[in-house]
Design brief:
4 helices, 17% helix, 13 strands, 290 residues, 50% strand
């Protein structure tokens, strides 16, 4: 009887178990057979295309390449390929000191895209009621060499101390770290004279409309230039500060003060000729963007 009970009891217990429990028990006690095709693909198994991460034109794998080429061309046109222009009237001002009343201008503009541009620059100064002391016009080709700096080359025509001069120009202009606007250029005249100029300015925003702008300019010559009363080395420096009020972003009157001095051999030459070598002027002017 004990033998019959040992055989019948498991059969009755198995019949009483739910089907889900039986399946669980089978999984717990059985080891699945290895897949003979593991690690292999068959000719009938569909395969997805390899990921396109890192490819320049990855969308061409999924869409019509011709349509995507047209879309990319349109994207470039709308985001960087457009031709734009600007005119920047940096300074249009009158200066006052103990001996004279002067005027000065500094204006520049450009036309082109993000990389290639045509630049023009003009600046000059003189005393009211007298001849222009200095005036110049630069025509330049400009190419972006980094996201923040342009390399520029062209020609400058200038009128300086009663003499017309023509120079080749090679320079750089851009935005330095901490938002300093800087520029430097070398000039080679048709007479072989080599001069250079470096300048920098910074906009310190006191309020949303009130901006304090310190600026500095330094000039030098590689050799003596007797026709211009200029000696080799640093020739003159100009340091100023202007406080402007932006009625709008494109129109801002300002007041300021500016100090100018001849340097080195140039100062000695001009002192021997009885000319002033240093001046400080109060300024009133206008800055505008077009």
């Amino acid at each position: 009887m004990k033998m019959i009970a040992a055989v019948v009891a498991p059969l009755v217990l198995a019949a009483a178990m739910p089907a889900a429990a039986q399946d669980h028990a089978q999984h717990e006690t059985q080891t699945p057979a290895p897949d003979p095709h593991a690690g292999h693909t068959t000719a009938t198994t569909p395969q997805a295309p390899p990921p396109a991460t890192g490819e320049a034109n990855a969308a061409d794998l999924y869409f019509d390449p011709a349509a995507m080429a047209r879309a990319r061309e349109q994207l470039v046109t709308e985001n960087g390929g457009m031709r734009t222009h600007a005119v920047i009237l940096e300074q249009l001002e009158a200066g006052f000191d103990d001996e004279s009343e002067t005027y000065a201008w500094h204006v520049q503009g450009w036309y082109g895209g993000d990389v290639h541009r045509f630049w023009w620059k003009s600046e000059g100064e003189g005393a009211f009621g007298e001849e222009i002391e200095h005036a110049e016009l630069q025509l330049l080709y400009s190419r972006a060499v980094t996201p923040y700096f342009d390399l520029q080359a062209g020609v400058r025509q200038s009128y300086l101390d009663g003499e017309d001069r023509t120079d080749l120009v090679l320079g750089v202009q851009g935005l330095a770290p901490y938002w300093f606007e800087v520029g430097a250029a070398a000039f080679v005249s048709t007479e072989g004279d080599v001069t250079a100029r470096a300048e920098a300015e910074y906009d310190l925003r006191l309020t949303q409309k009130l901006i304090l702008q310190p600026s500095a300019e330094l000039n030098l010559a590689a050799q003596d230039i007797p026709d211009l009363d200029v000696g080799a080395g640093f020739t003159d420096a100009n340091v100023g500060v202007r406080l402007r009020y932006e009625i709008s972003r494109s129109f801002a009157p300002y007041v300021g003060v500016e100090w100018t001095s001849a340097l080195g051999e140039t100062r000695d030459i001009r002192e021997s000729l009885g000319a002033d070598t240093q001046s400080t002027r109060a300024l009133i002017g206008l800055r505008a963007l077009f």
